[in-house]
Specification:
Blueprint lengths: L3 E6 L4 H12 L2 E9 L6 H12 L4 E6 L22 H6 L9 H16 L3 E3 L15 H14 L1 H5 L5 E3 L7 H10 L24 H12 L13
Parallel strand pairs: 1-2, 1-4, 2-3, 4-5
């Protein structure tokens, strides 16, 4: 019987690591795909490599692209990362940490990789509940990309199935994601979620991503194993 292969977008964060465990639980041989896209901080890539090794991915590829050429985000440009925002403030508008069209770019690379592997599955850890308001994390976006993927690929045109965009975390709260990952044995001490860590990679504890992560662990009744700066 042939092995099921899946391409998984691996950021090195809590969500993508949990997504990896879910894909493996479903019997997939996982091919991780990460990006050096011009982000100001690259500690997430170190985390992605740690996760890929610990979870024994079949292969982990890091692609180099440079979105600094466009800027427009606090992650790729000289723009301050928002700190200490409330839940209401996070939900009020799309934050400056949004990288224009990032998931569309990443999923396009994943789609090409899946075709070369003859894989019918891509996994992405997007979440539509406890998230920072990014438009490319919504179910309607994934549905639209799914339709495009079938139209734009040989495997979609000639195959009976095409490539499926799997989003197992889409309807889960951060607490549910943490609980699921812990149950599946994810080592969250290997991960990072911070948008603005220190030079040695210590999480700030105040950016949107850190606050959502900390909230998730608290509501899950667990302790986040990573280190935070003293002002967190």
């Amino acid at each position: 019987m042939s092995v099921k292969k899946a391409v998984l977008l691996l950021s090195g964060g809590l969500d993508s690591s949990t997504c990896t465990a879910i894909a493996q639980k479903q019997g997939f041989e996982v091919y991780g795909l990460s990006f050096r896209y011009g982000q100001r901080d690259t500690h997430e890539l170190d985390a992605a490599e740690r996760v890929a090794k610990a979870m024994r991915l079949k292969r982990h590829v890091i692609i180099d692209i440079d979105l600094r050429a466009f800027g427009g985000s606090a992650l790729t440009d000289d723009i301050d990362v928002p700190k200490g925002r409330s839940d209401d403030e996070m939900e009020d508008e799309i934050p400056v940490t949004y990288v224009p069209a990032r998931n569309t770019i990443f999923l396009s690379f994943a789609l090409a990789y899946a075709e070369t592997l003859k894989s019918n599955d891509i996994f992405i850890g997007v979440n539509a509940l406890d998230y920072s308001g990014y438009p490319d994390c919504r179910p309607e976006y994934i549905k639209a990309f799914q339709k495009m993927a079938k139209l734009a690929t040989k495997i979609g045109v000639e195959g009976d199935v095409g490539v499926k965009i799997n989003t197992p975390l889409i309807d889960m709260s951060k607490a549910d994601i943490v609980k699921t990952g812990l149950k599946l044995g994810v080592d969250y001490s290997l991960t990072t979620s911070c948008y603005d860590p220190s030079e040695n990679g210590v999480a700030c504890g105040q950016c949107d991503s850190c606050l959502l992560r900390l909230k998730g662990f608290k509501e899950a009744g667990s302790i986040d194993p990573i280190t935070y700066q003293s002002n967190a």
